[in-house]
């Protein structure tokens, strides 16, 4: 009986740690995405167009492109007309094309601008 209770406690503790890790990764990702979004807007303000690639932001608008906290690779960036999306692959480490994480569902963690028509962001996963 004691074994069962200690196993339940361990399981609950591990679930709590996973939730805490996920929140920490999401919050750091939000900071990194905001930095890229600001650099992207500064680029547009200076050149009249959004950058085709994130590399165009360095070093003038941002020192270095932050890495995805989940994959360790550069954050994703897509241009779609007069809109852009910058995103992390999220907790599932799968490129969902920038489609957002909806609480318990897998998905990407992203920054969209402007964010008025989220359905339009479901475009193909091509760079």
Characterization of this structure:
With 127 residues, this protein is an alpha+beta fold. It has a single domain, classed as Glycoprotein, Type 4 Pilin, CATH 3.30.700. 36% of the residues lie in helices and 13% in strands. It is built from 1 helix and 3 strands. It has one helix at residues 2-47, and strands at residues 76-80, 83-88, 109-113. It has a 3-stranded antiparallel sheet, covered by helices on one side. The N and C termini lie far apart (55 Å).
Q: Keyphrases for this structure?
A:
single chain, about 130 residues, alpha+beta, Glycoprotein, Type 4 Pilin, 3-stranded antiparallel β-sheet, 1 helix, about 15% strand, elongated, disordered C terminus
Write a brief caption for the model.
It contains one helix and three strands.
How does the SSE layout of this entry go?
Elements: H1 2-47, E1 76-80, E2 83-88, E3 109-113
Antiparallel strand pairs: 1-2, 2-3
């Amino acid at each position: 009986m004691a074994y069962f209770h200690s196993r339940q406690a361990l399981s609950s503790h591990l679930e709590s740690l996973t939730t805490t890790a996920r929140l920490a990764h999401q919050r750091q990702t939000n900071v990194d995405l905001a930095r890229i979004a600001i650099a992207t807007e500064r680029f547009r303000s200076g050149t009249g167009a959004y950058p085709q690639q994130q590399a165009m932001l360095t070093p003038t608008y941002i020192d270095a492109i932050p890495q995805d906290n989940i994959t360790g690779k550069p954050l994703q960036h897509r241009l779609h007309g007069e809109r852009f999306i910058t995103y992390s692959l999220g907790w599932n480490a799968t490129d969902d094309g920038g489609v957002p994480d909806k609480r318990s569902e897998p998905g990407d963690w992203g920054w969209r601008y402007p964010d008025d028509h989220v359905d339009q962001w479901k475009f193909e996963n091509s760079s």
